[in-house]
Design brief:
The protein is an alpha+beta fold and about 70 residues long. The chain has one domain. It contains two helices and three strands. The chain has a three-stranded antiparallel beta sheet, covered by helices on one side. The radius of gyration is 13 Å and the shape is globular. This is Acetyltransferase. It comes from Streptomyces sulfonofaciens.
Length: about 70
């Protein structure tokens, strides 16, 4: 989450890429609430692909399961 004054400034992408920079893993995986398509579109714009959906607990929301290969492109 990025605070309102910093939204649409590229801050979310900078934070995300900074956290994953230099990782040894082959993939990054995240879950995104399917009821928020704009939120799902953001990682898609960074190269993530939706590969399915998951509901971890009976009372939890459904999540889009998304992944991307590492290292991230510059």
């Amino acid at each position: 989450m990025v605070r309102a004054p910093w939204r649409k400034t590229g801050t979310a992408k900078q934070l995300h890429h900074g956290l994953l920079q230099g990782r040894d893993e082959d993939l990054a995986v995240l879950l995104v609430d399917v009821t928020h398509p704009k939120v799902q579109a953001l990682p898609e714009s960074w190269g993530y692909r939706k590969v399915g959906e998951q509901q971890p607990f009976p009372d939890s929301p459904r999540y889009a399961v998304m992944f991307t290969e590492l290292p991230l492109p510059a």
